[in-house]
Amino acid sequence: MAVPVRPLFPALRSAIWGMAGLLALAGAWQWGAVAFGPFVLPSLAETGEAVVRLVATGKAGPALLATLVHALAGCAAGGAAGFLLGVAGGLALPVGAMSYPVFTALLGTPPIAWVVLALLWFGPGGGAATFTVAITAAPILFIATLQGMRSRDRGLAEMAQLYRAPAFMRFADLVLPALADFLIPALATALAFSFKVAVMAEVLSGADGVGGGLATARSHFDLPETMAWIVLAIAVLIIADALLLAPLRRRRAGRGAPAPLSAEA
Question: Which of 45, 89, 173, 185 has the highest CB neighbour count under 10 A?
Fold first, then answer.
């Protein structure tokens, strides 16, 4: 019976080093609170109390859910558009040549500009946040997909076509695996940007969500609550990454890893 023993250790080491990084960040945070005082940076204890208060009063749940919806909906819509156009651009040179400068311009446009335009087009509310996230995520996925399409092994594609493999099979077995090394980092980047942009758009548009909580805390000059909202948003981002992207990373790493050691039972 084959018993895999290698894959567990890299994952365990990665988790330990990740925890060490978070502890180092917490230590630096506490040092900053002591060095600069509560009017600049609240302590970990004050922020923790604010987090508990937001959760206990029922403010955190609806706000985090609203931000999660804005971020994931915008990321999914923009990412899907960028991915499809990237695939089309990799298959048809004119599409890629025409689309690349457009998406480069979109990528270089500051998100704050899109927030202002979205407020004029959609008015205050969640629509502005979702649109801003979508227009931010689309170029990230487009450029990654286009690069992956251009770097794929064309010999394998020609062989599959020669043997008359179905188009869906060619896409699933040849194109997607070749794109994985480009798409997984791009998805992680797009997801992180989606949360940041969603919160920023919520602050400026007055929409519900973490951004709305941050705007309220700012108006009350409540630094612990401000940091509490930031901590909660980061926690939700980490959970979303672990649930949505970590399985893809593990699956990709498993495909590229050497065969595990085995023992006969």
Answer: 89
